[in-house]
Amino acid sequence: MIESIQLDKNSNKHLYIQLYRQIKGLIEGKAIKEHQKLPPIRRFSKVLEVNNVTVVNAYNLLEEEGLIYKKVGSGTFVSPFYKPEREGMGLDSEVYIDEDTKFSSKGKEEEINFATAAPTPDLFPIDPFKRLLNRVLDRDGGYAFGYQKSQGYLPLRESISNYIQGFGINVGPEEVQIVSGAQQGIDILAKTFLDYGDTVFVEKPTYPGAISVFKSRKAKIYELPIYGNGIDMELLEDKLKKEKPKFLYLMPNFQNPTGYSYSKEKKERLLEWANKYDLLIIEDDCLSDLNYGKEEASSLKSLDREGRVIYIKSFSKIFMPGLRLAFLIIPPRYYNDILLSKYMSDIFTDGLVQRVLDLYFREEVWEEQLKKLKMTYQGRYEEMISSLRTYMPKGVNFIEPKGGLNIWLNFPDNISIEKIYQKALAKRVNTAVGGLFYSGSSEDNKLRLTIAAVDKEDIRRGIKILAGVIKEEIGKEEGYKWDPSSMPLV
Ligand SMILES: Cc1ncc(COP(=O)(O)O)c(C=O)c1O
Question: Domain check: are 357 and 374 in the same one?
Answer without folding.
Answer: no
